[in-house]
Amino acid sequence: MRSTDINDSVGKMWQGQPDEAQHKSRPADEANSHYAGMNAHVAEWIQKCAALCRPDRVVLLCGSAAERAELLEQGVAEGVFVRLNQTKLPGCYLYRSNPNDVARTEQNTYICTPARDMAGPTNNWMHSRDAYEKLRLLFDGCMRGRTLYVIPFIMGPIGSPLARVGVQLTDSLYVAASMGVMTRMGEAAWRMLGTSDEFTRCLHSVGQCDPDKRYICHFPLDNTIWSFGSGYGGNALLGKKCMALRIASFQGFAHGWMAEHMLISGVQVGNEKTYVAAAFPSACGKTNFAMLIPPENYKQAGWRVSTIGDDIAWMWVDEATGRLRAINPEAGYFGVLPGTNQTTNPNAMATMARDTIYTNVALLPDGDVWWEGKTPSPPAHCTDWLGQPWTPASGHKAAHPNSRFTAPMRNNPALDPAADDPAGVEISAIIFGGRRSCVIPLVYQAFNWMHGVYVGATLGSETTAAASGKVGVVRRDPMAMLPFIGYNIRDYFLHWFRMRARMSDCPRIFHVNWFRKNDQGEFLWPGFGENIRILEWIINRCHGRAYAMETVLGWMPRPTDINLNGLALKPKDIEAAQKIDVEAFKAEILSEEELFLKLAGDLPKEIIFIRELLISRL
Ligand code: GTP
Ligand code: SPV
Ligand code: MN
Question: Does the annotation count 284 as an active-site position?
Fold first, then answer.
């Protein structure tokens, strides 16, 4: 960590020596020579941002363990973090965000381009010129009295053909500490960048954390993100949704690869290893599926699931094989806490046992943490996520429904050995899934890639606490990417269809729904570790080994094709979970119109054709 008290000079910080020069009037190349050793484009950009935001201090982070410890110490001293019980949870801290800032805010998220058409009908759009102007006023002097942290980071395993450099400037200590977990942060980013100016410019300030002055603006044409007024999750950790999904999806469209809201996991049975990628909307089960532990009888039969990633996949076609390969651009997990426990997700519990930042959970009297669903019964008393005394009689939740843990992936006992492999892994199946209490069956397979794109494009899911707004209403969330497509959804769909022609053999595409309920409101499927039974059918289908019936929706297993050994369920229960009610499905197809109407005359012809075929099957 190098720091200095400055007004407008980053140069002093960089060289660590006093400099009385008038930087504002210094010509560019003279300034560049002053930043000896630092990438000139970065230096110039930092200087501009610092001159705008006017922090008291600029601190350049190098990503070392000692620096991290120092940041956390400082956070405790400043009241940003609460140090948790270090015997129970070594290296763990609690952070409470502003209560008005607890989830992504899609209404404040913009794609900023010169033309509205580039953002399309599903994104908020601002003219890039207007956005810069508006946000410049907000950033102006916003870091007075604060420290500006400079965070160099890499998204993707170092050396990967898709790995990319970002630099985030932020006035949040919490964000700085979190970026060190979520990305490959530090010197490696400068080495990878060299003298290039190809890095994502990520400028962030919490500002006054005012929801009325909150803007998460993406400038895909400038490889730039300006985020103001939020310190939480996807709004503020700019490497994640902003860079690795919104900006990267645009870059992938331009250069023939894909950035998707997908987990990546490996399934090993004996000597056979199969990798799958799955797109479920926010808080719909990616982390859990990526860390799945098979039930005992499967374990004994040699089944193992390992994690490459739990939230984002970058995928490209390997020219040598014509197959789709994937990397996880992240280095950590920002996972949902409510519902996570020793039974549902033991790997997540082990992952967050150390070196973890817990956000918006309850604090127990012994310095441990708690959230709804962690234990079968709540603690007698604790401090809730707002910092207030809480008992089970308090009448509200102790942890926020979108409370999360930030933990390094290296803590995951099920981390796949290829998680750091720059060559990525070959993807055999793509699985789409939503949270649907009725209508949508447990599992089916698309007839082919093009039909699979339709299945993904029409994905519906009940909204969750991961984004602000109403929870539990079905909305279309194409490919689980509705909030994350950084360009026109019309072109996004076309890109998916066109990827087919780039591949000689493409992944098989499936749809799952772990969340269907019976009339009593109980889940029809046990979920979590038992999902391996569905995965078994999926993998066998990929390798041409499992039977499937042709149905109106696609290929489906017969109830007897799902292994129920060791489960109390009977084939008739699978029948219930798989039931297709044609009348209900007609209503579902009508509800897809909600999205298609937005695309109006731009709906790709492939979608129209596939839809006609579906209707004629009904
Ligand atoms: P983001 O990080 O927001 O992108 O979410 P995610 O898709 O990684 O969701 P996550 O795995 O964290 O799951 C969210 C919630 O769904 C948690 O409360 C889980 O306990 C619950 N959940 C996950 N898998 C299952 C399942 O198979 N069945 C049921 N019933 N619930 C599940
Ligand atoms: C999601 O909402 O899909 C997340 C959490 O993964 S956040 O990083 O806040 O977007
Ligand atoms: Mn996510």
Answer: yes
